[in-house]
């Protein structure tokens, strides 16, 4: 295996009594990448992350981190990885400083280093002056920054972030991504799960997950270029009626209204989608449009996740 691959999984599977949460997942994520898991609730993002961090034992399949099999090496690998959960895993009844010191103690940071490291993180994540504030009394954005400070306190080479921005507003989300790119610049590999398209678009590469299966993967640009459907926008009167009539055809993967246009995904095997659509409705205007990551997501999941 190449030294530069930080996360490798082969046929990774987890089955619960309720069913298969992750199904034969193959991953190969190079160092210094921000890699995304994009998918709806329940598609297996958290379960995969928990297996990759060594917290949950797979039903079958293999995982290597930094070329080291995770099995039997959990403790050694723990020092090299950071993990931030959806709930930010902070102690709400401890202060900002107490949370950081607690994490520092868990990772065995020496007292002499601890103070300087904590100070640096307080500054980096704009928490100076809040040292004595209870974590539970902070805003979503502040909690998120503290959680990131805690997850990176021991300078992990690999960082797992499970839906880190679900509880924050768009401005905080943008700032948070700036921090992620800073970390990435310093050589940290980051795996981030999300159900936000704009967030997925910022990743170097991503996997689209549905019901535990990987439906597509690659860079956002390549995914958009190789989308398995053609995007067409329709305009004219009664778009709701047009949507209803087109949705009856299995050749239309999805139809969603966006403002005064109806965005259509037409199955790839239709050679002349504009001519085809005109034959279905002569009173509307149809034109080809550029694919977005959302289109890729809809096409990869067969239109099952869009209304
Ligand atoms: N400990 C468990 N026991 C039984 N079923 C579980 C367990 N953990 C997860 N599941 C099931 O596995 C499937 C995948 O869940 P998972 O939490 O990994 O999805 P997710 O994509 O992270 O969604 P969310 O964003 O809602 O957390 C779901 O059907 C869930 O109910």
UniProtKB/TrEMBL annotation:
Keyword Nucleotide-binding: yes
Protein keywords: ATP-binding, Nucleotide-binding
Keyword Signal annotated: no
Domain ABC transporter: 7-236
GO MF terms, alphabetically ordered: ATP binding; ATP hydrolysis activity
Transmembrane region(s): none
Pfam family, one: ABC_tran
Protein name: ABC transporter ATP-binding protein
Organism of derivation: Marinomonas piezotolerans
Lineage, highest ranks first: Bacteria, Pseudomonadati, Pseudomonadota, Gammaproteobacteria, Oceanospirillales
